[in-house]
Structure prediction request, 563 residues.
Amino acid sequence: MISRLLLCLACTVVVAGAAHAAPTTQPLRRFALVIGSNNGGGERDKLRYAGHDATTMADVLQQIGGVAQADLSLLSEPAASDLDSAFDSLSARVRGERQKGERVELVVYYSGHSDDTGILLGGAHYDYDRLRERIRAVPADVRIAILDSCESGSFTRVKGGHKMPPFLRDSSNQVEGFAFLSSSSATEDAQESDRIGASFFTYYFISGLRGAADRNHDGKITLTEAYQYSYERTLGRTQNTTHGPQHPSYDMHLSGTGDVVITDLRSTESTLVLPAAMAGHITIVDKSGRVAIELTKDAGEPLSLALPDETYSVHVERAGKSFVATITIDHVGPITFDPDSLQPGSSETTLARGVHRHGDGDDDDDDDDDSHHHSPWYRDIEAGFGGGLRVEHPEQQTSFDALMTIGGTSRSVSGSPVVGIADTADLSLGLTLGGKTEFAYDMSLGVGPGVLVGDNLQLGATVGFGLSGITGGILGFAWKIPTEVFAVLELSPEIRPVAYFRQSYIFDNDMRQSGSKMTVWGADEAEAGAGLRFTGKLDGFIYASVREMENIRYWGIGLGAIL
Prediction:
């Protein structure tokens, strides 16, 4: 999929400071200031994922980074004065905690626009010297700053530093010095990708912090492990982007025994364990459709991942084939993934969920389905209720008790976001039952615009042409122009709620004209419905409907499944 140029800073900078090493038994308190700013002001393009990167970092720091919710400040689109106020408040709180005898550590994270002299907050310039001074003015024992923005090499050129005690309380670590990590060189742009919904470096850095970087399987993610993992993955995934490869860099001056621990997987109540024999390119997607962790695993050792309690889709690619399964993390302790639960994937369960632009060039996901010469960000969302059985009951007394039909209506939205093409096709054949038995038929085709809103919502509106009727004088034959609007919400790659409203204009049959009170704009017949469309092991649907023809209302339920 395509990666886009982040017109701002892409770097991760770690600055640790302490005048003297503190005893590891001293009480420890961690504070975090997390900033996300999509708006760089002026003519700069508005970023899409800086805010999301900041929120994700805040989640990781709270879940496995030792930061309590009360000690976390999350700023979204702040002004320069807001940032100064946040630093003032932090300084006061940290000073108070140190007076109580507690050891204090500070984490500052920024994701947004920048240039070679400073970060950009809604058009206001906050230079690096000022940012460093504000961080150093907070009287913490250890200070860690993480910046994700462009031209980050300009920030990491700054030399100096102080002794750095271990990030987590671990008496086996005795480290001094400082480390600067940058997600790109001084002459490179940092890039963000619609495919992953984040900037590359932060995306892989966070995946590493959740466990993907735990190379020695000790449950602790060190600075070196997180950097090596994000370096390799960022460089590998940006090799074929239009903006060229992105080279993370570093300037480390650390001495002592051990390494700086960034996150501790042992601090979470539950973990997802990928068994030793499992191998391949693994992508774990949460219920909102966001990629939580992406990694490549070799067989030989199990791998533990720290994830919040939730239901996830696990996608595995190996030997050119795709597989998918669902797992729920819902209890304390390790939860081992069962590879036997994997089922062959389909085009409907691909992970190409981003919104991309034509002309942005090729991306890192060369193995995504690019058949039929579509661009890599092309999507085809199927969400119809076709190929099933529907039974309808007339609300008023008629010459029959039920109308049973097979077939149904297919719906889809296809194209490249944001605007695509929507189409509908209806083919239903059936019989009236319970009394008078007659033949029912309904056929139509429709086409119109489709809109892909964000990652999970698709809308369609179609106008078509068709015919319908029920023999035996129950519903006379008529030509019609059906119009329909429908919405598809992707709760996960396997579940899609669908809702629709259709109304038809009838020709050559006076009896069927003005036959519904549900219609608007002078239409003659109407139908509404809602249901769920499933993909994966069970490909099917279930829905309920109500329609009105010749002033008779029919309540129906339909279902279908293909094993």
